[in-house]
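FORM 7B - TANDEM STRUCTURE REPORT

SECTION 1: FIRST PROTEIN
SEQUENCE AND TOKENS:
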Amino acid sequence: MHSPEATRILLALLLGVVAAGANLLGGLLVSHSQWSRRYLKYFIALGAGFMLATAMIEMIPESVKLRSDSSSVFFHSTNAVFVIVLAGYFLVHFFEHTLAPHFHFGEETHHEEISHSHASYAALLGLVIHTFFDGVAIASGLLVSSWLGGVIFVAIFLHKIPEGFTVASLMLASGQSRGAAFGSSAILGAATLAGMALMFLLRSTVADALPFSAGVTLYVAASDLIPEVNREPGVGMAVLVFLGVAILVALKAIFHV
């Protein structure tokens, strides 16, 4: 019989490997000529809604509860949670708009704007920071409950394939080889696992890490994914965003969480 702690670690390992594998799959699909970009956009739209709902309905309320129950934090005020959420949001904003100002999710088609290799490596660094906090978010959730870790994992998994696809596409657009493109998606997967491992080592910081991760999640959903949805004409993509929200609400109702 596994102890609860061992079971939690095994679950974290499984979810981490699957999330990292989705990054690899996204990179692999860049070289798959039969892959349709339409499917990538479906993942982006569905993921945007699910991520927004996860951050607002699960991560932030749980952060407030966790902070009020924790004796290991300096500030027990509810306001402190929102300050930390804001810090997470603006950390990703800072890195994406200083390291990779041309970055967007999806296939890179503006070759002239990303023609130099340093631009693609800057974008890779920005995405590494982003995916590192993907791992922190999943692990933070798991340290609170299997339910929270599970829904955060689903939210992150839905944009993992687009992440891998995006970074590999950026590499190809800057003139890098297909091997380098695939390797960049592997780096993103490794960063996710590193974030999870560090969070389990620093588990006492979960009362701060969870709201910080919520801010990162909000940024990815609202500032990275929703603008990509808004580029698409028609109402179909918007409906998928609402569907993402509805799926989380339905899961809560089914499992009475």
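SECTION 2: SECOND PROTEIN
SEQUENCE AND TOKENS:
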Amino acid sequence: MKFKTLIPFLLLLLMPAVQASELTQYLADLKTFKARFMQTIYSSNNEKKQVSYGVILVKSPDRFYLSYNKPFQLLYVADGKKLWSFDQDLEQVVVKPQGDILINTPAMLLGNPKDLTASYKIEKPVKQGNWLWFELIPKDENGSFISVSLAFEQHKLKAMEMKDNFGQVTRLEFDSIVKNSNIPDRQFYFTPPKGVDVLGQ
């Protein structure tokens, strides 16, 4: 069975700075985010488990689109009211009320970063090679992740890593990033294809 991971991702956008206030200010100005990504999943002993590729779009305050296109095809769409997931291999769609599902996930910090410091403790940035890393520690100890780390180079987001409660690390490396472009709401609409099973409401 293919290992497929929803990025509760996917996805933060900050700029390198030595003060947390600069991070929060950058997020506050972010209205839309679009990028391609390569995702690598590592086990707790740093063994590479899977590499996949896709596209992510986020629009403030609550719209989200994540599409994996290689090596499998998997789609997640949040339209502000419902969260849709479409597994093309299984020909199955799962739909849930969006509610608060995405509010405290790293992905939606891109779309609704009202108060970063209210949800995360921001550690002192660390320089590794040409990249400056920020580590964010969730204040909610009941969440799915124990840390989210963000890497920047010359004010450009390069990578994000999320470490879960089992020590597994999901790493995303970004390219073709576009900030604050006009992404129409229709990009976040989803209609189940004919003939697929639809579970939920």
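SECTION 3: OBSERVATIONS ON SECOND PROTEIN
The radius of gyration is 16 Å.
The mean pLDDT is 80.

SECTION 4: SIGNATURE
Preparer initials: ____
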